[in-house]
Amino acid sequence: MKKALITGVTGQDGGYLAKLLLDKGYDVTGAIRRNSQIETVRLQKLGIADAVRLVDFDLSEINNINRLIRETAFDEVYNLAAQSFVGSSWDQPIYTGDVNGLGVVRVLDAIRTYSPQTRFYQASTSEMFGLVRAVPQNEETPFHPRSPYGVAKVYGHYITVNYRESFGLHASSGILFNHESPLRGPEFVTRKITLGLARFARGDRAAVELGNLDAKRDWGFAGDYVEGMWRMLQQDAADDYVLATGVTTPIRDFVTYAAAAIGLELEWSGSAETEQAIDRKSGKVAIRVNPRFYRPAEVDLLIGDATKARTRLGWEPRMAIRELAELMATSDYDDWRG
Ligand code: NAP
Ligand code: GDD
């Protein structure tokens, strides 16, 4: 039975990955931060809360990392933990740099020192491309991060490459484009939209306030992306891979798809800060722009080229954007409790 460690197991990807590995017969250890209350809602929703062994862990604390890696000879370590919300990274740039950047080398160095046979996955991101230098983006596209989050992730990416090249570790970096699900955190735009529209459609007619509606993202389903992470660690040699759908969609279109899935028909008008969408049936404003949600520097366009993952890993994203929006919107509509 293979032993795997997942950092960030309480997050969206951590939950889906834990489920995938358990289904494959792994012994799964989930690393969680000490909180006033243990928060395993996602693991419960996936029906695996009792199957994952939970251990106390923080990426900013070298001692618990060393102890954990020394005591258990993990076959695979998936480093998914991070301060993952781009918007917060301008308010917490030092913390974000410490956890998302230095946290990676803490884990890598523990592996090098105590368990060099352990295979390592780093959760890198399309946010590293930032102000994109090529369209679409692939493993060769230069980075130009636009947020403290993206800057820290570039460090995490290159230190993974460096430990592979310096010490021969089986360390891979997955450059993943946005992936969503009904388990997505409520602060990210897709879930904010589906939660807000569900509330609106259920009768609480408060408008959902959003920032930049013109930004475009390459969105896939999180369940498909964790399969790609696992495939990376099954290769003979470690490497870096882009996972993406190759389709990009403006935020505005995601709103329209999600609204339609729960019976709302929106009529858009205005532009920039005056743009809004009215629900035809009720005549109420369902979406409006609030500049409070604009970012100091924006990533306008992301679209990935996952040819390498397709050809070498046999990986394919299975869910298209409309289906994803529908899945998330109907899930929030059905779960709405008022
Ligand atoms: P998420 O839902 O926000 O989960 C983040 C996880 O990290 C949570 O379990 C969180 O614990 C944990 N964490 C945060 N700070 C920590 C610390 N200091 N020490 C230990 N654990 C800590 O994120 P996600 O969407 O699953 O993303 C997983 C990873 O992939 C992240 O590294 C993210 O940056 C990266 N990524 C995500 C996407 C995407 O579209 N989802 C795309 C590219 C890359 P709590 O539950 O205690 O907060
Ligand atoms: N969160 C949020 N809230 N974003 C908004 C809003 C809003 O009200 N209105 C517009 N947006 C725009 C943001 O400006 C951004 O251009 C886009 O929606 C997506 O924002 P998020 O959903 O917060 O995701 P992200 O792309 O910044 O970051 C996510 O994807 C990265 C991969 O590219 C996160 O999961 C990161 O951890 C991940 O690395």
For this structure, what is the CATH class of the largest domain? Answer: Alpha Beta
For the termini, the CA-CA separation is 44 Å
Q: How many DSSP E strands?
A: 15
> What is the string of helix and strand elements?
EHEHEHEHEHEEHEEEHEEHEEEHH
Contiguous helical run count: 10
The unique ligands bound to this protein are:
NADP nicotinamide-adenine-dinucleotide phosphate, guanosine-5'-diphosphate-alpha-D-mannose
Describe the global form: globular
Main sheet strand line-up: 3-2-1-4-5-6-11
CATH superfamily (homologous) name of the largest domain: NAD(P)-binding Rossmann-like Domain
Radius of gyration: 20 Å
Structural class: alpha/beta
Main pleated sheet? 7 strands, parallel
CATH architecture identity of the largest domain: 3-Layer(aba) Sandwich
Strand content: 15-25%
How many domains? 2
Mean pLDDT: 98
Q: What does this protein structure show overall?
A:
This protein has 338 residues and is an alpha/beta fold. The chain folds into two domains: 3-181 and 220-246 and 303-318, Rossmann fold (3-Layer(aba) Sandwich); 189-215 and 250-300 and 322-335, UDP-galactose 4-epimerase, domain 1. Helices cover 38% and strands 18% of the residues. It is built from ten helices and 15 strands. Helix 1 packs across helix 7 (222-233) and helix 6 packs across helix 10. The radius of gyration is 20 Å and the shape is globular. The model has no long low-confidence stretch (mean pLDDT 98). It binds NADP nicotinamide-adenine-dinucleotide phosphate and guanosine-5'-diphosphate-alpha-D-mannose (GDD). The site of NADP nicotinamide-adenine-dinucleotide phosphate (NAP) has 26 residues, from helix 1 and strand 5.
